[in-house]
Amino acid sequence: MSFYQNGVATGALTALGETWSGAFGVGLNENVCEAYVWLCLNWIPGDEIFIFGFSRGAFTARALSGLIFHLGIIDRGNLGEFHSIYDAYTKRAVKPNHDQTWKSKQKELQDGLGCRDLDIVKVKVVGVWDTVKSLGLPENERARLWNKAFGWDRKHAFHDAHTCENVENAFQALALDEKRAAFSPTLWSLPSSTAKTNLQQCWFPGAHTDVGGSYPDAQRFDSSDLSLLWMIRQCRPFLAFNNKRLEKELEPDDALLWWGAQPLHNSYTFQFYLNGQEIRRPGQYLKKQKKQDGHEVGPFNESVHASVRLRLLRAQMLESQKKDGGRVVETEMMGLREEGTDKLSDKYDCKAMAGFQLELIESNKSEKRYKWVKKMDGGENIELMEDQLGEDELKMLDEGVRKLLDGPVGDVKLGFPELHAAETGSKTPGMMNKFWGYLGYS
């Protein structure tokens, strides 16, 4: 059985309504509760639970898995008690004096409400694309002042979107080129290095919607198709997919621009100037979370998709073409059709990957393994493995793309330049931040 709901800030809303709804998380609690009640009405022991979502829907999916962890599955005959239980659950994190109320409600769940044993209610997979908190405000001091003044954050502070112990597999596709501060990514971390959850998080080229949903002008094998294939690969051990339909919808001969060559979009448009921009930091959120939470956390298990390397290889070939006086490189060598070359950029300027250099770490006749390395101050390095392509992805590769990906890298230096001094700050203040500054809140 399956259940689908529109995400936060979708549905029959005007553009202004969608912006307002998305910014303040309108509908998040309702969506979580609706999905949970559906589970209580339909779940029977032995059923496996799979939860998927994109953007704020991804946060909803993670909050739902957290609710299942804390409540289990309430017997359908006792759902009349759900609202009082949920009320205690929502207050447990933000009102310490309600801790005892929540503990008594938990005892009710186990003793008198027919709640299934928490150990039985496992979530097989939580698969998400670029999780964004439903509050939709940047994580900075001025935003915290807004939260404190208006109480916006308190409405959602109780949601548990961590990798809870009941989640067996957690998969997330992340966008490298999203710059909106209000769309700061919410990565998972394991609660400890010994946690049993299979956590995989992979970075893809593109903005938030490039990776998670695609734009109206999207073509075959853009980042959303690649992230879909990646998610399917993660879930294949647990779900059966319609391979014929998949191959039909992702037929390589239908593509104008081959695998991972489509233009990326700039999501930092005028309506988002209010909150400023923030460069994403792959491999650096672990240190940030340790600092914020004040305790040790387990690994994030981040990797970088092979399409990042492919974009750099193509850009490098086009740049050499210019330096050689316009000598034409065969389009097949770049995995392109002739008519698609004018749409291909000769540069992939990914500020999130600034300072990362590609290293070949293993090579044999059957495969090569790569990692991205960034040297930090103090001699510390950040290392992110390149994600290994699976059978579904390899089937979709044109011969030209294969040649690029499998070609020699030893004599080809690939990497991203360090940011200029003016760009080194990860956050650029927007109009709203400047407004607070003018009021003296610097």
Report what the structure shows.
- It contains 14 helices and 10 strands.
- Helix 2 packs across helix 3.
- It is an alpha/beta fold and 442 residues long.
- The longest helix has 18 residues, at 306-323.
- The protein has an 8-stranded mixed β-sheet, with helices on both faces. The chain has a two-stranded antiparallel ribbon with strand order 5-10.
- 33% of the residues lie in helices and 13% in strands.
- The protein has helices spanning 15-23, 28-42, 56-71, 82-91, 99-111, 141-150, 208-212, 223-235, 243-249, 285-293, 306-323, 391-395, 399-406, 431-438, and strands at 49-54, 123-129, 167-175, 198-204, 277-278, 302-304, 356-363, 368-375, 381-386, 427-428.
Keywords:
442 residues; alpha/beta; two-stranded antiparallel ribbon; 14 helices; globular
Terminal Cα separation, in Å?
Answer: 52 Å
Strand numbers in spatial order across the main sheet: 1-2-3-4-6-9-8-7
Helix content: 25-40%
- Outline the biggest β-sheet: 8 strands, mixed
Q: Could you tell me the strand content as a percent range?
A: 5-15%
Number of strands: 10
The SSE order reads: HHEHHHEHEEHHHEHEHEEEHHEH
Give the overall form: globular
- Unreliable stretches, pLDDT < 50, 5 or more residues? 9-25, 438-442
Structural class: alpha/beta
| Count of DSSP-assigned helices | 14
- Radius of gyration over alpha carbons? 23 Å
